[in-house]
Amino acid sequence: MTGKVIIDLKQLSFAWPGQAKPALSIDAFRLNAGERLFVYGPSGCGKSTLLSLLAGVVVPQQGVVEIAGQRIEKLSAAKRDHFRADHIGLVFQQFNLLPYLNVLDNVTLACDFSHQRVTNLKQAQVSALDEAKRLLSRLLLPESLWTKSVMNLSIGQQQRVAVARALIGAPDLIIADEPTSALDRESRDQFLQLLMAETEQSGSSLVFVSHDDSLKSHFDRHLHLPTLNQAVSTVEPSAVEGANP
Ligand SMILES: Nc1ncnc2c1ncn2[C@@H]1O[C@H](COP(=O)(O)OP(=O)(O)OP(=O)(O)O)[C@@H](O)[C@H]1O
């Protein structure tokens, strides 16, 4: 852990277009480099909205969203896209894999859009292709599938490809939205252990959203979002639990 702050939110307020009331209102929140955060709370409490703000898909009407030292709410949409490709690995419920590319090409594609990820791989003295193979092996995706179209894969296998794509080139932050929803309990625990091991190795911070709070034990920090989000009424005493609240 370097002590670097990866997420710094201040006086944040965000309302979806056409909505009078904010969906998210956060006074202050920080996540340090290497920390792994589990975000939970009931449907509608703002989990996906928070991830969209962290990824720079949307920007707040008020306040600061600083990711790895960059105030992304001040960037143009094009610069936010560029920043996201360089610094953030996304694993969303829809994996957004490209059906006309094979598995390896879907993983290395993340490097085609990011000078930063290529630089990180060069520093680690590994090619994008070799790193894609290493990640897919670690994520237990059979080698016989690597040159197949992602359309031939099961949902659980596609999830692994999406995770390898997020991790390649060691971005500062991995954002995962319900990535285990399609897995059975045994595969889910195995998947989480691998995700933890890989983020630890790369030094990436992790923000992981789920309805399923039985997954909490895998994480260093837990965030009950309705408690932090002042746009949602709540009775919980403390929003952030864990090693470094
Ligand atoms: N694209 C959108 N346009 C307008 N309102 C939205 C949009 N997305 C979410 N909302 C609203 O913002 C609030 C927070 O929704 P959000 O999807 O962030 O919650 P969530 O905790 O992720 O829920 P779930 O667990 O069901 O995915 C809700 O009131 C929702 O209706």
Automatic annotation (TrEMBL):
Domain ABC transporter, chain residue ranges per copy: 7-244
The keyword Nucleotide-binding belongs to this UniProt entry's keyword annotation: yes
Protein name: Methionine ABC transporter ATP-binding protein
Keywords annotated in UniProt: ATP-binding, Nucleotide-binding
Molecular functions per Gene Ontology: ATP binding; ATP hydrolysis activity; transmembrane transporter activity
An example Gene Ontology CC term for this record: plasma membrane
InterPro entries linked: AAA+_ATPase, ABC_transporter-like_ATP-bd, ABC_transpr_LolD-like, P-loop_NTPase
